[in-house]
Amino acid sequence: MRRSRNEMIAETRQKLLSAGRRAFGELGYAEASMDDFTAKAGLTRGALYHHFGDKKGLFAAVVAEIDAEMSARLCDISSKTSDRWQGFVDENVAYVLTALEPEIQRIMFRDGPAVLGDPSQWPNANHCIATVARSIENLRNDGLIVDIDPEAAARLVNAASSSAAQWIANSDDPDATSKRAVKSFKTLLEGLRIEKDPKR
Questions:
Q1: How do residues 20-68 score in pLDDT, each as one tens digit?
Q2: Is 82 helix (H, G, I), strand (E, B) or coil?
Q3: Which residue ranges carry the DNA-binding annotation (predicted)?
């Protein structure tokens, strides 16, 4: 069956994305060659320029693809518990721990900020903050955490988790650093909770 033009365009774009993601994950942004990953995709530089503009444009698209996958994974984690607070903690801690995964570590937390700048300014940042803010608002409305501005709290939680992940990713000993980061991050999150009266 003959494929439509749109299907062929989508296929070309996905081939470039996959080849770029593999190269960025294995070699890093600086060492990844446009000629290498266009050749591996069986395409030309012209195709890369047409779909993504340049190497940085392809990298930004790879970051967006990985970010969408991470978001889906984290939502799945929080949905697996009936305890709203525990789901919130599990989801945020899981984000920090993604910095131990080689591909995510290199692309999202090491090369990402170096190539694309401050993660809080990335296109997806506002969506992430809005999602965390909704969770915080629900926890507040359920009486599980202190009365706090959801957006302000979400920005602080997001900044802490992002900073912790970057610390792990750039550490000489990521495993050891992750244990320190997660322990302290959980303590920070616990500060949001309303203490229950033990006499009740």
A1: 999 999 999 999 988 877 887 788 888 888 889 999 999 999 999 999 9
A2: coil
A3: 33-52
Nearest to 129 by CA among 142, 119, 139, 144: 119
Residue 200 to residue 184: CA distance in whole angstroms: 29
What does 27-55 look like in DSSP terms, one character per residue?
H-TTT--HHHHHHHTT--HHHHHHHHSSH
What is the amino acid identity at position 39?
A: A
Helix (H, G, I), strand (E, B) or coil at 60: helix
Q: Phi-psi category of 180—alpha, beta or left, where left has phi over 0 and alpha has psi -120 to 50?
A: alpha
- CA–CA distance, 80 with 176 (Å, rounded to integer): 27
Identify the three-state secondary structure at position 147: coil
